[in-house]
User: What shape does this take?
Amino acid sequence: MPREQFQRQIASLQDGVLEMGSMVERAVDRAMQALMDRDVVLAREVISDDREINAIGFHLQNACISLLAQQAPMAGDLRMIVSVTAIMSDLERMGDHAEGIARIVVTMQDEPLVKPLIDMPIMATRANDMLRSAVHAFIEQDVEAAYRVGAADDEVDRLYDQIYADLIQVMISDPTTIEPSTHLLWVAHNLERIADRATNIAERTVYSATGMLPQMDVSSY
Assistant: This one.
């Protein structure tokens, strides 16, 4: 395979990651909007649309396998392809987390909220910001930007801890709220996992660019 054609296919993989990342970001936004508006119809659309995210992931996986088989790439090109396979898996799981939020909305139906949704939308925004930044850091092979994604996870974890503590207190104060509180805890858990997987993508960016796979040490960022 000519080098120019190979590089075009590498660029196509990057475009696929960008497309898949955008689809996941939109799924998270729509799932949270469904929660805020108690919109079961929108939630069902998010659930249905997850198949499109999975289809993109399947296409990327096949493209990676094809390149590995045809070109036997070395060094940076090999790291790039291997990283795409890992990132595709994380994005697919992020889509599943968004779908999970939507399924919770369907389960809740008209169930009353046990507390105002204040911290949770902020948490969702932060997680989606991390997702967007992580994908762009990978496309640009920007190591410093990747480390900043890791640093941002601290804020998401803080918000999760606050939501968790608040909901536990609600359940202690009124045991009849245990089920609806648990539903909101699962929403927060899904958001926390999205942020964690954005950090995974950031780690893969460092690996792709440098050959090292760090556990994000964000003390200097």
